[in-house]
Amino acid sequence: MNKDETRDVPTPVGVVLAVYDQSKDYIEECIESLEAQEFRDFKLVIVIDGANDSTTDAVYDASRRMTVPCQILCRFENLGLVHTLNEGFAELPDCEYLTWVSSDNRHEASFLGTLYESLRQAPEETVLAYSMFHYIDSEGRRTSDAPDSLEAMRKHMDRPKEHIYQSCYIGPSFLFKRSAYEAAGRYMPDFPRVEDYEFWIRLLQQGDSQFIPEPLMEYRVGGEHALSTRTPVEELQTTAMKASVYHRRKIGDQPKVTIVLYAHNQESLVPAAVDSVFGQTFTDFHLVLVDGGSRDETWSRMHHYQDPRIIPLRLDEGKGSSYAWNLGFAHALGDYVLEIGAEDVLPPDTLEMLIGRLEEEPAAWGFAYAKACHWLGGSEPGSPAAVIRSEQLHCPLFYRRSAFDLPSVIRYRRETGRQLHRYFQGSPSGKLVLDAQSAAERKPAGGRRKRKTAAARKGKQRRPPSRGRSKNRTPQTPLRRSAGKRGAPLAKSRASHRRPRRERAAA
Prior knowledge:
Shape: elongated
Distance between the termini: 86 Å
Strand order of the largest sheet: 3-2-1-4-7-6-8-5
Largest sheet: 8 strands, mixed
Radius of gyration: 28 Å
């Protein structure tokens, strides 16, 4: 069949193959797997998006073996994935069902047929069918054949559509209805590198999805031109969550409270902290989980939780806690923001108590903080024998979200973060000791070291002015921390200028 004439042949399924610079072997494997499909009632449009000469030649050579309607659109300018997909689908106006594939993947012979039958037989409101897949390396060897790997994938992918705001659980094997594609507004370029994830959010607003617990294709990772190879993990994850937050705002998913939980190499502490958040009696919240580039299983522990209220962020290593906190705050949609670490465990009524207390105060009050209890690692949180000190600390910090918008408010600066905080560590004797000098005792940048105060010269310990988070805990006796029980005193801090004298007198 003439490869430039596909519009006059009505077929139910349309496939777009997007091609940029790619290995000749990968292209041949991809196109051969499409030609080997058991379901034959489909059309293929190959869009060459400004690829190099060797890639272009490989596409034309491999496509000669296609026996289904096939059309090639060759463009010398690289316009990106969004333009490529929309241009390709525009060439398939009579196809009721659409999908697209990447030039380095391989497909099972049952790929199109299984997706088509599943979506065709699904309820009318179903707009998407998607399936499991196999991972392969750059040499084409499968890396996810183990039963436990496939079971983990099934658990991750078989989810309600509301979970799309937390994670892109839809893989590279899918088929969707053209009517939903057009109603969703087609692919958009607003979120580069995660255009497919952003499209799934809009598509699932049009209807339901159908999951197929069977691998129907092979997805290559580690290839020279693969997206995962060329793009840092942090860029992909943060851009995806920007898309999520953008659409949450559009649909009115803005909770009363956003909880920002930061962890770095704290895999053993994450479960208790997250469980305490989901155990709150007040449930109108989002949970922003920030992994600061951990080398252990911290991210896996975070990724284990499935809840549409979660906004997960994974950073590259070496960005620091100040950067991580500020990034977490930037994804906060609640009227209030609670800041905790992986070492924090919240009693069930923490949010209720903090919200109730701060809402009693004028809007000028910027944040509140509660009493905290400290205990040594290995002891049960809350155990009387484990508590070694209870003190009024800036922990947990509970902000009004509006306070962040004031021009005079600075949250965290990398260069001053260590000067603004004191840290605790557990000593071998089991006593709580200060592990850092205060900002007043440190040498200012470009100046002389300030003299110690009288209290410091006498060896007295002063109450730390900020969070009690430990930077230098010993592995044998890590400190855990819990917000105080109901009735513990709350302190308040101002987020703006002092009140007029007349207002202070009236108070």
